[in-house]
């Protein structure tokens, strides 16, 4: 989640490969937003792309300190450990991510890949099978939610002429608030899935 437009701009720069420009904005923002785990994690990702292990891990660790019960933070650090060839630390972090969120298909899959590299094929296969089951279940859930959202949009259009605009805006705000609560962790997971599918590159 972006803390403001500058944070979003920095994310766009990083995706374009303009790492130094992105880092400058990130570090300037950090002066007034030290407690934002998303910003701190993004700085860690930027240093990962600079192949700076020390600073990457420093910010990844800080993101976990700020949000110790959020599985996504451990999955991100696991990816960083793997990038820097520390497979055992990466495995430990993926296990922690799964402990916090047993339904994280990406963490199961990535843990399977690392276990396979270590020669634990049976355990790796179990992780792959679990990831496949979770991915299929998640996609079904996304499909149902998309249908519900489409139906809700259609219903809103039909009722536009009969509902006072002030009431509609209040209803929309309530709906958006509830959807945000429901989707927040899943949206983070979707972003990570896109990151994986892009070949571990920010695009």
Tell me what the structure shows:
With 203 residues, the chain is an all-alpha fold. It has a domain at 1-68: Alpha Horseshoe (Serine Threonine Protein Phosphatase 5, Tetratricopeptide repeat). Helices cover 79% and strands 0% of the residues. It contains nine helices and no strands. It has helices at residues 5-15, 19-30, 37-49, 53-66, 71-83, 87-100, 105-117, 121-158, 165-197. Helix 1 (5-15) packs antiparallel against helix 2. The longest helix has 38 residues, at 121-158. It is globular. The relative contact order is 0.07. The model is unreliable at 175-184 and 196-203 (pLDDT under 50).
List keywords for this structure.
globular; single chain; 9 helices; mainly alpha; Serine Threonine Protein Phosphatase 5, Tetratricopeptide repeat
In short:
79% of the residues lie in helices and 0% in strands. With 203 residues, it is mainly alpha-helical.
Shape descriptor? globular
Helices, by number, come to 9
Name given to the CATH homologous superfamily of the domain at 1-68: Tetratricopeptide repeat domain
State the CATH topology of the domain at 1-68.
Serine Threonine Protein Phosphatase 5, Tetratricopeptide repeat
How much of the sequence lies in strands comes to: under 5%
* CATH class descriptor name of the domain at 1-68: Mainly Alpha
Kindly state the mean pLDDT as a whole number?
A: 82
Q: Tell me the major beta sheet.
A: none
**CATH architectural group of the domain at 1-68:** Alpha Horseshoe
Name the structural class: mainly alpha
How many DSSP E strands?
A: 0
Low-pLDDT stretches are: 175-184, 196-203
Radius of gyration, in Å, reads 20 Å
Q: Determine the fraction of residues in helical runs and give it as a percent range.
A: over 70%
Element-by-element helix/strand order:
HHHHHHHHH
Distance between the termini: 17 Å
């Amino acid at each position: 989640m972006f803390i403001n437009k500058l944070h979003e701009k920095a994310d766009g720069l990083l995706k374009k490969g303009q790492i130094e420009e992105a880092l400058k904005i990130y570090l300037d923002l950090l002066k007034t937003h030290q407690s934002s785990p998303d910003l701190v994690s993004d700085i860690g990702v930027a240093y990962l792309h600079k192949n700076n292990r020390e600073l990457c891990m420093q910010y990844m660790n800080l993101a976990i300190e700020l949000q110790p019960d959020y599985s996504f933070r451990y999955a991100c650090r696991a990816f960083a450990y793997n990038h820097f060839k520390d497979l055992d630390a990466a495995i430990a972090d993926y296990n922690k991510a799964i402990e916090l969120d047993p339904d994280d298909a990406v963490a199961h899959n990535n843990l399977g890949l690392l276990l396979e590299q270590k020669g634990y094929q049976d355990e790796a296969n179990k992780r792959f099978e679990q990831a496949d089951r979770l991915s299929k279940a998640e996609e079904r859930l996304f499909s149902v939610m998309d249908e519900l959202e489409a139906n809700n949009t259609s219903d809103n259009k039909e009722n536009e002429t009969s509902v006072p605009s002030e009431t509609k805006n209040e209803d929309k705000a309530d709906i958006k608030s509830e959807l945000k609560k429901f989707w927040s962790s899943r949206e983070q997971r979707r972003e990570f899935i896109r990151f994986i599918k892009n070949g571990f590159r920010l695009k």
